[in-house]
C-alpha cells in the first residue's frame, strides 16, 4: 500500500514533469520564428532583390503568425555584410537568408560564431553544419529562350548584356547559344559586359550598342529593366530577367526568366519550425518550380510557342539536358562528346564559351 | 525680392558652430520625417542614433566603419586646406588595397612577422603611385586635378576588376571573382579577441595625431594654410606651390592606400570585386563636416559611421527603408552647406 503510494506519486511527478516540459515547448513554439533576409540591391530593383523580397512576403503570408520576417536592403558585398548578418543573428533571428554570392565568406564567419542560428546562402558553394546553400538552374530557362530567340531573330545576331564573368553568367550565355544554334545554325551572340548587377545607365547603353551592331533580340543577365525599356523604344525583342518585366516592355518582351524562391523559402522555414532543418545544397530548376517563364508574347507564332513549351516540358521531365553533347568550344574542338552530359564540375565552374559566341571572356 | 550679399566679415566663431547647427537641424527635420512615416520620433531617433552603440559590440563596429573614413578624411584635409582638390581617394584606396593584397597573396600560406609591414609599405606605395599621376599632371601641365583624380578612380576600379577576374582569382573558387583568403600572418590583428576592431583603427588615430602636429607645429602646415587662404601672399613669401601640391597628394594617397589595405586585410580578409562602398567619396563629406580639422574629422567620421549603422538598425527594428539613411546623410550635408553659405553671406529682403 505504502509502496503503491510512492509509485503513484512518482508517476504523478513524472507525468507532471512531462506535462510541464510539454508546456514549455508549447510556449516556445508559440513564440514566432524571426527570419532575416539581406539583399544586395533595393527591393524595388524589379529584378534579383525584388524577387527575393516577393518570396519573403509569400513565405510570411503562408506561415502567418508563426514567423516574423525582417529584411535589410542594399547591403554592399564588402565589410558591411558581416556586420549586418551578425546584427540579425544577435537580434533573435533563428533563420537568415543571405541572397547574393558576395555574402559567402561573411555568412560563413557569422555561422561559425552563432551555431544555433540557421543560415541559407544563395549561389555560393561553402557550407557548414548550420549553413546551407541554394541556387537555381537558370540555364534551363536560358535553353528555352535560346530556342525562341533562334526562331524569332531575323538578323541572326543576339545581343547579350552580361554582369560579371562568373560561371553562372557564362553558363547562361552558352545555354542560350547552344539552343539557338540547334534551331538556327547561323545565330551568333554578341556579349557586352557591364561589370555590375544593377546599373540602369550602363545597361541601357549596352542595349543601344548591341542594337546598333545588328542585334534584334536583347537578352540580359543584369537586374534592371533598362534593357527592356531600350528594346521597347527601339522596336526589337527582349527577354526579361529575374522577374516579369512586361510592364516595361509590353511589346518587346518575348518572355522572362522568373526566379521563384517562394517554395524554397516556405519549405526551409517550415523545416526550422519543425526542427527538421539540415544543411544541404539545393540546385533547383523547372522541376522544383524555382525557375519559371513569364507568359509568352501574344505576337509569337504558335509553332514557336509549341517548340518552347515542348523544350520546357522535356527539361522538367529530365529527358533533355541543355548541356548534352555534342558541344563544341569557340575553336570548334569538342568539349562534350555526342550523347554525353557535361560533368557537374565543368557545369558549376564553367569558364569557356561555346561555338557561336563572339569575343572572349574578360580576364 | 530676396538678395544674397557678402557679409563684410565672415562670422569666425560660426565656422565651428555650423556643424552643430547642421546636426541639430537634421535632427529636427528627422523628427518631422519620422512623424510623416508614422513612427514615434523618440523611438526612431533612439533606434537610429543610440541603440547601435548601446552594446560593446556596437561600439567596436562603429570604429570599424569609421576607420577608413577617418584615415581618408584626414589625408584629404591637407590638400583641401591648400586648395588642392583630390577627388580620387577611392581610386587611391583601391590601388593601395591591391598592392598590399598582392603582397599578402604572394606570401600565401607562409608565416612571418615581416609580411604585414611589407603589406603596409606596399599599400602606401600603391596609393601614392596612383595619387602621383594627378599630382604630376597638375604641377607639370597645370591640368585640373579634380578631373584627373576623379577619372583615375574609374581606371583604378577597372584595374581591380581585371585582376580579380584574372591573376588574383582564387584557383579553387569555382571561377568566382574573389581572391584566396589571406593567411593569418597577412591579416591585421584584432585589438580585442572575438571582435572585428583591428589594427587599422590605430593607424587612423595615428593619422589624426600626425596631421594635427603638422598643422599646429610644423612650418609646412603653416605654408599649406597660407596657400589655401592667400595664394598670392604665399607666392610672394616664396612658398613653392608645386611642392605643396605633391605633398598633399602623397599624404592623401598614402592614407587612402592604408585605408584600402585595412579593409582587405581587416574585416574582409581577401580581395573582392567591391572593396569599398564609396569610402573615398564619403570621406570628402567627412573632411568638410569636420571643418578640415583632424579632431573634427574624427568626430565627423564617427557620426557618418553611426548613420550607416543606424540605418541598418532602423531597417531591422522598425522596418524602415534603406533610403532613410541616404535622406539623413543628404540633409546633414545640405544643412551644413546652407550654414556655411550663411556664414559668409547674408540674406537681404526688399530692394
Commentary on this structure:
The complex is a heterodimer of chains A (363) and B (351). Chain A is an alpha/beta fold and 363 residues long. Chain A is built from eleven helices and 15 strands. Chain A has a seven-stranded mixed sheet with strand order 12-10-9-8-6-7-15, sandwiched between helices. A six-stranded parallel sheet of chain A has the order 2-1-3-4-5-11, sandwiched between helices. A two-stranded antiparallel ribbon of chain A has the order 13-14. The model of chain B has no long low-confidence stretch (mean pLDDT 91). In chain B, α4 (89-106) packs antiparallel against α5. Chain B has a domain at 68-286. Chain B is mainly alpha-helical and 351 residues long. Chain B contains 13 helices and two strands. In chain B, strands 1-2 form a two-stranded antiparallel sheet. At the A-B interface, β2 and α3 of A face α3, α6, α10 and α12 of B.
The proportion of strand residues of chain B reads under 5%
Overall geometric form of chain A:
globular
Spatial order of strands in the largest sheet of chain B: 1-2
Secondary-structure content class of chain B: mainly alpha
Largest sheet of chain A: 7 strands, mixed
Distance between the termini of chain A: 88 Å
Which residues of chain B sit in consecutive blocks of at least 5 with pLDDT less than 50? none
N to C succession of SSEs of chain B: EHHHHHHHHHHHHHE
Derived from helix and strand composition plus strand pairing, the structural class of chain A reads: alpha/beta
- Give the tally of structural domains of chain A: 2
Helix content of chain B: over 70%
Strand order of the largest sheet of chain A: 12-10-9-8-6-7-15
Identify the biggest protein-protein contact and residues per side.
Answer: A-B, 38 and 38 residues
| Rg measurement of chain B, Å | 22 Å
Q: What CATH architecture of the largest domain in chain A would you give?
A: 3-Layer(aba) Sandwich
Mean pLDDT over the full residue set of chain A = 90
| Share in β-strands of chain A | 15-25%
Number of β-strand runs of chain B: 2
Q: Might you state the CATH topology name of the largest domain in chain A?
A: Rossmann fold
**Which stretches of chain A of 5+ consecutive residues score pLDDT under 50?**
1-6, 12-27
Amino acid at each position: 500500500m505504502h509502496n503503491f503510494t510512492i509509485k503513484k506519486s512518482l508517476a504523478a511527478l513524472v507525468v507532471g514533469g512531462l506535462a510541464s516540459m510539454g508546456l514549455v515547448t508549447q510556449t516556445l513554439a508559440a513564440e514566432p520564428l524571426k527570419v532575416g533576409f539581406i539583399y544586395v540591391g533595393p527591393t524595388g530593383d524589379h529584378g534579383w532583390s525584388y524577387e527575393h523580397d516577393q518570396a519573403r512576403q509569400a513565405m510570411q503570408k503562408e506561415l502567418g503568425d508563426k514567423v516574423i520576417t525582417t529584411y535589410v536592403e542594399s547591403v554592399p558585398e564588402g565589410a558591411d555584410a558581416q556586420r549586418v548578418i551578425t546584427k540579425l543573428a544577435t537580434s533573435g533571428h533563428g533563420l537568415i537568408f543571405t541572397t547574393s554570392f558576395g555574402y559567402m565568406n561573411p555568412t560563413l564567419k557569422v555561422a561559425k560564431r552563432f551555431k544555433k542560428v540557421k543560415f541559407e546562402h544563395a549561389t555560393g558553394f561553402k557550407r557548414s553544419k548550420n549553413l546551407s546553400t541554394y541556387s537555381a538552374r537558370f540555364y534551363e530557362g536560358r535553353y528555352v529562350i535560346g530556342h525562341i530567340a533562334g526562331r524569332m531573330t531575323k538578323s541572326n545576331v543576339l545581343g547579350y548584356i552580361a554582369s560579371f564573368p562568373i560561371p553562372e553568367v557564362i553558363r547562361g550565355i552558352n545555354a542560350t547559344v547552344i539552343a539557338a544554334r540547334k534551331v538556327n545554325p547561323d545565330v551568333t551572340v554578341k556579349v557586352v559586359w557591364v561589370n555590375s548587377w544593377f546599373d540602369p545607365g550602363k545597361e541601357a547603353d549596352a542595349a543601344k550598342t548591341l542594337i546598333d551592331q545588328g542585334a534584334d533580340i536583347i537578352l540580359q543577365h543584369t537586374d534592371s529593366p533598362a534593357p527592356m525599356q531600350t528594346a521597347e523604344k527601339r522596336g526589337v525583342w527582349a527577354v526579361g530577367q529575374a522577374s516579369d518585366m512586361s510592364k516595361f516592355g509590353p511589346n518587346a518582351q518575348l518572355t522572362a526568366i522568373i526566379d521563384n524562391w517562394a517554395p524554397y523559402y516556405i519549405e526551409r522555414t517550415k523545416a526550422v519550425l519543425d526542427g527538421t532543418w539540415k544543411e544541404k545544397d539545393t540546385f533547383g530548376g523547372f522541376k522544383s518550380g524555382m525557375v519559371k517563364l513569364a507568359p509568352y508574347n501574344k505576337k509569337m507564332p504558335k509553332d514557336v510557342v509549341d517548340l518552347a513549351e515542348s523544350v520546357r516540358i522535356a527539361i522538367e521531365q529530365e529527358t533533355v539536358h541543355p548541356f548534352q553533347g555534342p558541344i563544341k568550344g569557340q575553336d570548334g574542338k569538342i568539349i562534350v562528346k555526342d550523347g554525353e552530359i557535361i560533368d557537374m564540375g565543368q557545369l558549376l565552374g564553367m569558364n569557356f564559351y561555346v561555338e557561336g559566341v563572339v569575343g572572349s571572356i574578360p580576364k | 525680392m530676396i538678395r544674397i550679399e557678402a557679409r563684410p566679415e565672415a562670422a569666425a566663431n560660426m565656422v565651428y558652430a555650423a556643424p552643430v547647427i547642421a546636426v541639430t537641424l537634421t535632427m529636427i527635420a528627422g523628427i518631422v520625417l519620422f512623424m510623416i512615416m508614422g513612427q514615434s520620433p523618440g523611438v526612431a531617433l533612439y533606434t537610429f542614433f543610440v541603440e547601435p552603440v548601446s552594446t560593446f559590440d556596437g561600439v567596436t563596429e562603429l570604429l570599424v566603419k569609421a576607420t577608413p573614413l577617418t584615415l581618408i578624411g584626414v589625408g584629404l584635409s591637407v590638400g583641401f586646406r591648400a586648395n588642392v582638390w583630390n577627388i580620387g581617394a577611392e581610386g587611391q584606396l583601391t590601388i593601395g588595397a591591391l598592392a598590399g593584397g598582392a603582397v599578402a597573396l604572394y606570401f600565401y600560406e607562409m608565416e612571418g612577422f615581416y609580411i604585414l609591414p611589407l603589406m603596409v609599405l606596399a599599400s602606401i606605395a600603391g596609393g601614392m603611385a596612383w595619387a602621383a599621376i594627378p599630382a604630376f599632371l597638375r604641377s607639370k601641365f597645370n591640368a585640373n586635378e579634380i578631373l584627373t583624380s576623379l577619372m583615375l578612380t574609374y581606371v583604378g576600379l577597372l584595374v581591380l576588376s581585371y585582376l580579380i577576374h584574372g591573376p588574383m582569382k582564387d584557383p579553387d573558387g569555382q571561377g568566382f571573382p574573389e581572391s584566396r583568403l589571406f593567411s593569418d600572418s597577412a591579416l591585421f590583428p584584432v585589438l580585442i579577441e572575438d571582435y572585428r576592431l583591428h589594427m587599422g583603427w590605430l593607424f587612423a588615430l595615428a593619422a589624426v595625431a600626425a596631421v594635427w602636429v603638422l598643422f599646429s607645429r610644423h612650418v609646412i602646415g603653416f605654408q599649406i594654410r597660407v596657400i589655401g587662404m592667400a595664394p598670392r601672399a604665399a607666392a610672394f613669401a616664396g612658398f613653392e606651390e608645386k611642392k605643396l601640391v605633391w605633398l598633399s597628394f602623397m599624404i592623401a594617397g598614402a592614407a587612402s592606400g592604408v585605408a584600402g589595405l585595412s579593409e582587405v586585410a581587416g574585416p574582409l580578409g581577401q580581395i573582392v570585386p567591391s572593396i569599398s562602398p564609396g569610402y573615398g567619396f564619403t570621406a570628402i563629406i567627412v573632411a568638410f563636416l569636420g571643418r578640415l580639422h583632424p579632431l573634427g574629422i574624427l568626430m565627423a567620421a564617427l557620426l557618418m559611421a553611426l548613420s550607416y549603422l543606424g540605418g541598418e538598425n532602423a531597417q531591422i527594428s522598425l522596418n524602415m527603408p534603406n533610403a532613410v539613411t541616404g535622406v539623413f546623410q543628404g540633409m546633414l550635408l545640405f544643412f551644413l552647406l546652407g550654414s556655411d553659405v550663411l556664414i559668409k553671406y547674408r540674406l537681404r529682403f526688399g530692394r
